[in-house]
Here is the input.
Amino acid sequence: MTENPLSALRRLLVDDYHALRERLARRYGSADFASELLHDIWLKLGRAPAEGAAVAVRNPRAYLYRVAINLAADRGRSERARLSTAELDALHRRAYEDLDPERIAEARMDMRALADAINRLPPLRRAVFIAARLEERPYKEIAARHGISVRVVDRELSLALDDLSRAIEKDRHGGGNAVRKTSSS
Here is the structure.
């Protein structure tokens, strides 16, 4: 009886654990992070349906390494998203907290500046920002909706966040329109 591809990948992960961990630790500078990635791969392989593994992987070691790199990239995007969401949430909360009138007025001006800055974003960048941050849509869904790659979604969101930060900062200091007009839309 032949071993199914998922079982073979799990076995290879166990057999090559130390070599994969060292390679990932060199790449990311942390043995602990490398161990976490390999643990996530193990869990991912355990959740995969057996019938979905009908196709054998041509190079299983390279496949496991690529899965680890993809998981690390997903974590990085997730961490950046959490930080950015936290910053926007803080701005939103600040406008509605029980504050003195001067701070309430300042927070309202910040919210208006943010809304104006969002409206000044190029159309694709604005759509990506709204879908990712306000509607909390997955990057894959946003990419499919706009006919772009996930990488473009990530780039446009990053540019939108940069543009919005600059616009709000410039507005606070009496400047004008700080949103870049370039876009791949």
